[in-house]
Amino acid sequence: MRRITAQQAASLVRDGDTLLIGGSGGGHAVPDALLEALGNRFRETSAPRGLTALHPVGVGDGGTRGLGHLAQKGLLKRNIAGSYVNSPPIGAMALADEIEAWSLPQGALSQLMREMAAGRMGLFTKTGLHSFVDPRHGGGRQSPSAKEDLVTLETVRGEEVLFFKPYHVDVAFLRGTTADEDGNVSMEQEAVTLEMLSEAQATKRCGGLVVVQVKRMARRGSLHPKMVKIPGILVDLVVVVPDQEQTYLTPYSTAYSGELRIPLDDIPRLKQDARKVVARRGALELFPGAICNLGSGIFTGIANVAAEEGCLDAICLTNEQGNIGGAPASGGEAGAAMNPDAQVDQPYQFDFYDGGGLDLAFLSFAEFDAAGNVNVSRFGGKLIGPGGFINISQNAKRVIFGGTLTAGGKPKAVAQVEQVTFSGRFAQERGQPVLYVTEQAVFRLGENGPEVVEIAPGLTAEEVIGRMGFRPAVSPDLRQMDPLLFAPGRMDLAAILAARPGRIGSPRLSALAP
Question: What is the pLDDT of residue 176?
Fold first, then answer.
């Protein structure tokens, strides 16, 4: 293992290379100094050119950092990612057809890293069927020049599955906290661990170069072996960045790393507005012991609501990046979690999700339509990507979508979504219960699409329907949304949960004496 500068690392990337990039969202374990050096090299020398950027999670601060460093015409030929929401400049290049672009499920790409590490032929999964990732509906392509079939439809044992092809990796830019003199890397101050190990293994199997950005160096043999996330045998080069930040917004939080827990009163409270109403109504679907995912967006507020109501410890909130328990962070910090009980690598979290481990999934919608389809991936002239949405929504026992009914005066309940990220018909075929929660009404997925089941106090069903792009059915049992959702102060959520039956465990537990 050699220690070099970020500029030296950038000089090793060649024209046409496939660059595998670790990290998540707003700076979470993102090797930003390496990406910045690569962007600066191209700006100064017009090299390297024609790269393929491969990253399972969206990476950036919404501007010039992360993938934003690479948003220069000619530097990238193609981008394959779970999300573009953190790097709008890259999304804009895709929409302008300046690069070949695909957006694929974050979980599929994360799990694919393990398949590549093992030299297996690729990833077979049902995740993505009947969405825009399905080759029958676009194969995840997001630009006209994206011609290659990265996803194919196959039949295995008589069942339809999607096959995600592997990639040959030339260089990996990864990140940790500490490296010792042998290149062993730990991640004790990171908010997430993701698939760094699998990415390093996959790169080495391809004969590629593994470069890891860290905050500090340690003496050989001083790292506890169980702390090592990337063994030195997989690391070629280390770049030390002493002022490395935990995220783009937070230099270091002990609550994110798990070093210390903060009091629940220190978790921010939401202001009383439409977004809090939606988060509160979503929280009414909770029950004791429920294992939940809070996707990015409006429903991350459920963590804040549960903390304010004093019942955060009665449930288990998770996010796809690998945090289990605690309060998943929101906004630009989404992906981290305050006070997590455990942090696992992202591929294992998606294994749990894909296996039906989630009782409840709380996910945002950008728009939903008359067939119950939901779009979060491409709308309004913006390329967002699905992130973990497809894995989560398709495999949870129940899914609750949330958002405001309108945005800028325009309906978000439309006749037909621009892109299908979640298929209402596929959910109906599998008997999956689905709710759509807004600040004005609540809908459930019925036989013929969304049906109004609750309306806000002071509104009529016709007033709500008048703000939609289609006419839904109205339940004969239509009821009013709880007025407490709209009132300041607590709504006594802890007492509501305590009165409900808890999560049902294994039937074998009944054989034990009380």
Answer: 98
Q: How many CB atoms lie within 10 A of CB 269?
A: 12
Phi-psi region of 306 (alpha: psi -120 to 50; beta: other; left: phi over 0): alpha
For the cut 80, the answer to whether the pLDDT of residue 514 exceeds it is no
CA within 13 Å, CB half, 261: 11
Q: Residue for token digits 């020398």? A: 45
CA angle 51, 54, 60 (to 5 degrees): 100
Q: Are the C-beta atoms of residues 116 and 109 closer than 8 Å to each other? A: no
Verdict on whether the full-model pTM lies above 0.70 = yes
CA-closest candidate to residue 233, choices 174, 182, 175, 177: 182
- What is the rounded (10 degree) CA torsion for 454, 459, 460, 465? -80
HEC string of 62-121? Answer: CCCCHHHHHCCECCEEEEEECCCCCCHHHHHHHHCCCCEEEECCHHHHHHHHHHHHCCCC
- Order across the sheet with 178-180: list the strands: 216-218, 178-180, 185-186, 228-230
3-state secondary structure of 167: coil
CB contact set of 73 (below 8 Å; sequence gap of 6+)? 93, 98
The set of catalytic residues is: 320
What pLDDT digit, counting tens, does each position of 337-354 carry? 999 999 999 999 999 999
Distance CA 337, CA 307 (A): 13
| Whether the Cβ atoms of residue 269 and residue 36 lie closer than 8 Å to each other | no
pLDDT at 249 over 80: yes
Residue in 358, 285, 299 with CA at minimum distance from that of residue 330: 299
Q: Are 56 and 195 in contact (CB under 8 A)?
A: yes
The pLDDT, as a whole number, for residue 507 is 86
